[in-house]
Amino acid sequence: MMQDVHQLRCTGCARVIALDALKENLRCPECGDLYEVEYPAWSVQSAADSATRPVKRNLPNPSALRWLWKERRTSTELKDQSGVWRFRDLLPILADESNIISLREGNTPLYELPRCAQATGVERLYAKHQGMNPTGSFKDAGMTAALSVAHERGFEWVACASTGNTSAAMAAYAARAGMRSLVLIPEGKIAWGKLSQALDYGALTCQLRTDFDGCVRVLSEVVRRAPVYLLNSVNPYRIEGQKTPALEIAEQLDWQVPDHLIVPGGNLANSSALGKAFLEMKHLGLTDRVPRVSIVQAEGANPLYRSMQANGGRELTAVEAHTRASAIRIGNPASWRKAVKVVEATGGWVEQATEAEIALAKAEIGAEGIGCEPASAVTLVGLKKLLAAGRIDPSESVVLLLTGHTLKDSDYTIQYHRGDLLREEELAPLRPEIEITRRNTVELDADPDQVLRALEKAGRQ
Ligand SMILES: *Cc1c(COP(=O)(O)O)cnc(C)c1O
Ligand SMILES: [Zn+2]
To answer: Any signal peptide, and if so, which residues (predicted)?
Structure first.
């Protein structure tokens, strides 16, 4: 029975609810906070109160799990080929595994970043590239989990408000399941690549005359009045799927966790999920410690950064969000309390990045032959700042979590290289660094001599 395997606990008042009591806006009716999935047999939170509420504890064997997860990579079964469901032992959220809806997400590469390592002085620097997922962002890992739950519970419609990537992922997985999807996006403020995906995968896509936070407000009313299943990251099952990149990172580093993990912060679900995973892995004896998880926001969309500065993360004041990194243009992040707990539990920090810093960092990651979305590049900015502040030592190992694929927002990249992305006053502090990374197109006649002269000139640079 699935009730025995997982339960839902409010992260605010600790109340445990029945699985079918999770309704509508997915928030606790008592305190308004978000729910978290836990597994009475083994999870961290239930260990804390097993003294008062005896449960049969049944901790899985870590070396058997490591072996099993590796073995599954050679299987031809869908649930084994998925980099999310390969780890299903740590996310047993379905009553019946035949309800899995998967696009073979996950199993993303962990790249070395030799040039960025050299430039920053860090010896071991890696990028976990979640942009290499089926729809081009980390959202697929959470979506396969939560949409499979929606499918199992018999919903016809799923819905989300999105800065773009969630809608692309939701629309794709809904299409695979033969379900319908409703997308609310802020008008004129999402990258074309992402919008095109939602249309291609057949979503009912509504552009609302408001920002992301306004879309969230409208959607919470819609789910109250219509039988649609909410797939925003307030959905605790998305968090379960989004744990798996942390398991992959540990596996890819031979179960030696890195010293630091740096994650972009928007709605703050991703950092919450990765922190949950690392804490669970340590608790189960899969790893012997946790990395410090640090979060980086854009300066124009920095409510968590401000909250940490002003009151150590006890209260958060929403801001009106402005940044070209549209995936993290969020002023009122839903999962901020979960994120604060992760930063505290792991000893991480919260940083912010200016528009020029983000643009430069994105070009530097691009020059490694990898590329990423603007929002992902805040992680490299965070690394530079944490090094400068002495919070990361160059001898430590660092993983940057790259959240989205570079082709998601090619307009941004082209504007950068043409020199018309940033305003004068934004550019000024970093002009020389940015100038040497710019690679605009060279317009020539159809003449070999002109191409040879261009080649010679480039060779001298
Ligand atoms: C959604 C998204 C983020 C922000 O993740 P949160 O979980 O909302 O903090 C960052 N980068 C990309 C590319 C995204 O799609
Ligand atoms: Zn509560």
So the answer is: none
Q: What is the DSSP string of 409-440?
A: GHHHHHHHHHT-SS-HHHHGGGHHHHHHH---
CB 216 within 8 A of CB 25: no
Q: Are 439 and 417 in contact (CB under 8 A)?
A: yes
DSSP letter, residue 53:
S
CA distances from residue 318 to 322, 334, 370, 380 in whole angstroms, order as listed: 12, 10, 34, 25
**Which residues are placed with Cβ below 5 angstroms of ligand 2, an ion?**
10, 12-13, 28, 30-31, 33
Does any ligand 1 atom lie closer than 6 A to the CB of residue 287? no
Residue 365 structural domain: 110-134+239-437
Give 243 Cα–ligand 1 centroid separation in angstroms. 14
226 alpha carbon to ligand 2 midpoint, in Å?
Answer: 24
**From the alpha carbon of 273, which atom of ligand 1 is closest?**
7
Residue 17 has φ and ψ, to the nearest 5°, of -115, 160
Model pLDDT for residues 211-248, shown as the tens digit of each residue: 888 999 999 999 999 999 999 999 999 999 999 999 99
Supply φ then ψ for residue 251, to 5 degrees: -65, -45
The CA-atom distances, in angstroms, between 193 and each of 116, 142, 196 are 27, 20, 5
Residue 392 near ligand 1, beta carbon < 6 Å: no
pLDDT per residue over 439-449, tens digit each?
A: 989 999 999 99
Q: Please, what's the largest Cα pairwise distance for the chain?
A: 82
pLDDT digits (tens, 9 = 90+) for 334-385: 999 999 999 999 999 999 999 999 999 999 999 999 999 999 999 999 999 9
* Identity of residue 66: R
Does residue 402 lie in a domain region?
Answer: yes
Write out the two tokens for 37. 């999935």
DSSP 354-417: -HHHHHHHHHHHHTTT----HHHHHHHHHHHHHHHTTSS-TTSEEEEEE-B-GGGGHHHHHHHH
Query: Would 333 be classed as within a structural domain?
Result: yes
- Report residue 190: phi and psi, to 5°: -120, 155
Q: Is residue 366 part of a domain?
A: yes
CATH of the domain at 408: 3.40.50.1100
Q: Considering its fold, how many domains does the chain have in total? A: 1
Is 318 inside any structural domain? yes
Residue recorded with tokens 């430590």: 396
